[in-house]
Amino acid sequence: MNKKTLFRILLSTGAILWVLSWIGDLNGKLPESTYGMILSVIVTGFGIYFWLKSYKETRGHYPNFYKKYQEMIKSMKKNPFNGFFFLVKNLLKFYTFVLIFSMILVLIGYLTIGQSEPVKVTQKYCENNIDIQKITGEIKHYGILRNVSSKWNSETGSSHLSLIFVAENGVFNISSKLEKENGEWEVKEYELINKNTGANNGYK
DSSP string spanning 163-192? Predict the structure, then answer.
């Protein structure tokens, strides 16, 4: 198998794995979706490596992305539809950039918002709340994707968040409302949904 065929297979496989893992995470297919995301990053990394290596061997230099961008802008000034044809012609480069950009966004989101105080407090609350534990059983794994909306300072604040986790008794989504008073976060309301049965348990 030549390098050109190899990197195309690797990049396509990485993209498919990423999309499937994203869908799996949102639907609670854990921890398989997490492993899929990690594997996708690895496969995509190898694909980029072999792509750049093949490009250098066949053309004598690495791709000049800024030059390609200038060419696209110049052609679009003559005809706006040229932008579409340019993307089709450079489809592999385009979806690789989209894939990498998506991976970077997920990583930044997970390391910042996904590891914020409201998320950690909610996770700890789920793991120690007797009523939740009776329904879910022991929590085994949290999804990577989190939906968080927060506003706070050192003393006060509020946060609304949603995250998915897999436990002994199935896959659950918890939506919680937190308030920060005197520098401490506290869960004020939460809604626990069993994603397998649709059962809804809301508490205040």
Answer: EEEEETTEEEEEEEEEEEETTEEEEEEEEE
